């Protein structure tokens, strides 16, 4: 089960450097998590200032 970023994302980029497998990238309007790459470690979730990241 991968983590997902909701539409609440403010594109601050805080989550991207936290991902140990580089599964997070900047999308068109919000950051996105590649479900195939995500290892479900949760490192990104606590750094999100708007709580936009959660388990799928």
From TrEMBL:
<dbReference type="InterPro" id="IPR050157">
    <property type="entry name" value="PSI_iron-sulfur_center"/>
</dbReference>
<comment type="function">
    <text>Ferredoxins are iron-sulfur proteins that transfer electrons in a wide variety of metabolic reactions.</text>
</comment>
<keyword id="KW-0677">Repeat</keyword>
<protein>
    <recommendedName>
        <fullName>Ferredoxin</fullName>
    </recommendedName>
</protein>
<dbReference type="InterPro" id="IPR000813">
    <property type="entry name" value="7Fe_ferredoxin"/>
</dbReference>
<dbReference type="InterPro" id="IPR017896">
    <property type="entry name" value="4Fe4S_Fe-S-bd"/>
</dbReference>
<keyword id="KW-0411">Iron-sulfur</keyword>
<keyword id="KW-0479">Metal-binding</keyword>
<dbReference type="GO" id="GO:0046872">
    <property type="term" value="F:metal ion binding"/>
</dbReference>
<keyword id="KW-0408">Iron</keyword>
<keyword id="KW-0004">4Fe-4S</keyword>
<dbReference type="GO" id="GO:0005737">
    <property type="term" value="C:cytoplasm"/>
</dbReference>
<feature type="domain" description="4Fe-4S ferredoxin-type">
    <location>
        <begin position="1"/>
        <end position="28"/>
    </location>
</feature>
<keyword id="KW-0813">Transport</keyword>
<keyword id="KW-0249">Electron transport</keyword>
<dbReference type="InterPro" id="IPR017900">
    <property type="entry name" value="4Fe4S_Fe_S_CS"/>
</dbReference>
<dbReference type="GO" id="GO:0009055">
    <property type="term" value="F:electron transfer activity"/>
</dbReference>
<feature type="domain" description="4Fe-4S ferredoxin-type">
    <location>
        <begin position="29"/>
        <end position="56"/>
    </location>
</feature>
<dbReference type="GO" id="GO:0051539">
    <property type="term" value="F:4 iron, 4 sulfur cluster binding"/>
</dbReference>
<dbReference type="Pfam" id="PF13187">
    <property type="entry name" value="Fer4_9"/>
</dbReference>
